[in-house]
Amino acid sequence: MGIHIYVLNFCTWEVRIVRLDTRYFGELDIPDDHIIHFANGLRGFEDHKLFAIINNYDTEEPVPFFWLQSLKDPELAFVLTVPFIFKPDYAFDLPEDTEQILRISENSELGIYSIVTIPGEVKDFTYNLMGPIVVNYSTREGDQVVLYNDNFSLHEHFRS
Hints:
The protein is mainly beta and 160 residues long. 7% of the residues lie in helices and 40% in strands.
C-alpha cells in the first residue's frame, strides 16, 4: 500500500507521521491529522476510504489549491480548491446523513472544498459546486455531498 507510520516524540507532545507514495510528489511525509476518513468513499471511488489533504509544498505564498491523495492508490489524487474564494455567495444546507457521518457538533471545525477539473488549458479549468467535499477536522471524517440545485454547476469556470 505504500503507507508507513512512525512517531516523533518531542518532549511532551507526540507527532504521528505517515509516509505515503504519491504520483505527483513522490514519497511524502505528512502529519496523520491530514488524513481524512470517507465512510462512503468518493463518487466513483467508493472503495477508497482514506485520503490525505496535501498542501502545495513548493511555494511560500498561500495557494488556493490542495491535493486530495488516496492512501490506497498513489495514482489517485484530486485537485481541490476552496469554493468561497471564487464564489463568495456559495451556500448550502448539509444533508442530515452527512451531519451524522461527519459527527458534527457545535465545536466542529469544517472545511468545504470543490474538486477541480483540469482538461488542458488554464482557461478551461472548472470546479464542481454540485459535489462539494465536506471535512470535519475535529473528527477527521469527510463526505462528498451531492447537491441538486440549479444555481450550482458541475463545471463552474474560474473567473478573473
